[in-house]
Structure of ADP-ribosyl cyclase/cyclic ADP-ribose hydrolase:
Amino acid sequence: MALATAESYDYDVFLSFRGTDTRHGFTDCHYNFMVDAGIRVFRDDDELSVGQQINKILLAIENSRICMPVLSRGFASSTWCLHEFAKMVELRKEIVPIMLSSGLRCMETIWTSTR
């Protein structure tokens, strides 16, 4: 697979998060900050309607320059979040994690699940 140039990415950032943990708090605030700064951000509730395939999410990961998982308390217990994270690792994406204080234990789970 050829590496894409910065201009060929659809998104600057793929924001991965556990919706029930952070969607209406930290993630909304962080998303709005990035968008206001002119950063092209993919987040699932912005780009996809209910019921759309995970393939579209995986394609968005592939077409993002940076992946930014928000590691919250429930991130590692979400099959979707772990699937997204595994795809980031598989594609050797640049990963810039945001670790919330409630998500410290989540990091060990993620680390062991992607090895």
Notes: The radius of gyration is 13 Å. The domain at 17-113 is CATH 3.40.50.10140 (Rossmann fold). The CA atoms of residues 11 and 102 lie 28 Å apart. Residues 19-36 form the longest helix (18 residues).
